[in-house]
Amino acid sequence: MARTLDQVLTGLPAKRRAQIERRAGELATTLKDLREGFAHTQVELAESLGLSQDTISGIERRSDLLLSTLRRYVEAMGGQLELVAHFPNRSPLVIEQLATKAPARTEPGRAGRRDEAQNASRPAPPNRGPNPALKLFVLRCPRLSAN
Questions:
Q1: Burial group, residue 60, by CB count within 10 angstroms (0-12, 13-18, 19+)
Q2: Residues near 139 by Cβ (< 8 Å), separated by ≥ 6?
Q3: How far apart are CA 94 and CA 80, in angstroms?
Q4: From the centroid of its chain, how far is CA 4?
Q5: 103-129 per-position pLDDT tens digit
Q6: Residue 100 Ramachandran class (φ > 0 left, ψ -120 to 50 alpha, else beta)
């Protein structure tokens, strides 16, 4: 028969329950939770980032962010964003070098025909199956983990 989380926790020694509760308090499930965990308001964060309060509100509601936006958000609170990739049968890999400047964009339809011809003549990459997903964002915030 399935047991609830409360039933599982009740069966654990008190020391282990305390460790779990302490760790759960360190985890933020949303950007809003993270911000509130550091006792920042949207206005304070907006001023720190040079944005408006409504922009911060929009960032916190988004389900898809640029890594650069997320990095700036975390760094504005004194944290460091780390991107970790998990692959089957391997240790997690920390991706340390992300471009800090967006690549130059070409106007739509302006790619030269020579580029298209070069790409067409290149062999397709070998099929290695589905690409492993980047599963985990690790937020390192010294003040949050000090509790």
A1: middle
A2: 28, 34, 74, 79, 81, 82
A3: 13
A4: 29
A5: 555 555 555 445 445 555 555 555 444
A6: alpha
* DSSP H stretches of helix in 41-112: 42-49, 53-61, 67-75
CB 107 within 8 A of CB 96: no
**Token pair recorded at residue 84:** 């970790």
Contact 51, 116 (CB under 8 A): no
The H or E element containing residue 113 is: helix 113-121
Q: Where are the domains of the chain?
A: 18-122+130-145
Number of neighbours of residue 99 by Cβ within 10 angstroms = 8
pTM of the shown model: 0.52
Percent helix / strand / coil, the chain, rounded to 5? 45, 10, 45
Number of H helices, E strands in the chain: 8, 3
Amino acid occupying residue 140: R
Calculate the average pLDDT of the chain.
75
Please choose, from the candidates 59, 85, 57, the residue with its C-alpha nearest in 3D space to the C-alpha of residue 72.
59
